[in-house]
Amino acid sequence: MDKLREQESIGRDISHLFRSIRNFMGRRLQPYGIGDAQFPFLMLLLHEDGISQERLATYLKCDRATSARSIARLEHAGYVRRLVDPEDRRAYKVFLTEQGQELGDVLWSVSKELNGILLEGFSDEEKLAFRKMIKRAGMNISKWEQIRKTADE
Q: How far, CA to CA in Å, does 52 sit from each of 9, 86, 100, 129, 142?
């Protein structure tokens, strides 16, 4: 029974952490008229402005509809603009507006604050190990999802 509770707690703990991060991000980003779900889109565009809407969705591991809603919300807020891809008239490329670029400093600050809170009290070695373990767990679930997706086809 103890082993079962230990295994169940991993998912519960990750779920709690995820919800807490979303709440934190939502409170920090609310004054700018965006939600926590738009944060990763903006951060990716700060790294790679002008990428396709489809590539944004793929990189952030969300479906096209979710991506389209987030981008539409950011567009409505004035942070991004979509332009038809000249190489594929059916696709859009997404660019930060000047207002979106100016928001970059706020986003980096919020990201740094969140990381500081999450890693408070961790040694440098623990921080590195924690990041490696999170990445490995993410890769593990991605492999499982790909295997399941292939089996379902």
A: 38, 11, 17, 33, 22
